[in-house]
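Journal club prep, shared notes

We agreed each person brings one worked example of a sequence with its structure written out as tokens. Mine is Flagellar assembly factor FliW. I'm keeping it raw so we can talk through how to read the token line rather than staring at a rendered picture. Sequence first:
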Amino acid sequence: MLSVLHNKSISFQGSVLGFENFDRFRFSVVDEEQLYGYLQSEDDESIGFLVINPFVIYPDYVFEVEENTREKLGIKSPEEVAVIGIITIQDPFSKSTLNLLAPLIINVTNGKGTQIVLPPKSNYRTKEPLFKYLPAESGEKGC
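Then the structure, token by token:
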């Protein structure tokens, strides 16, 4: 789904937590496998986020997009929806985390997006491991 967003401008309407003064972000796919994307602020080039489709890492990730969010984004069908999660980069990269508590919801048809915060009962955190299991030859211990 990330390839559908490549080179599109997305209006988050000031909904990205901690970055409310920034509205428009340009999306770019950043790897050949199309797993990772980058959201670059169109208002300030020093603001950007590495992102991923969270379902690739957490296939059991599930939540419901509320009706008011669907209306705000003009979502008419599930095919219009892209969900991405912001990655917090760590050193080494294998220690990086994924924000599952506050995903970004994007209508791929009209370029509108918003960040939502899931209820506490969801059991998701802002710092879930990006790499749940690492191969033994990596020298790192998996979670």
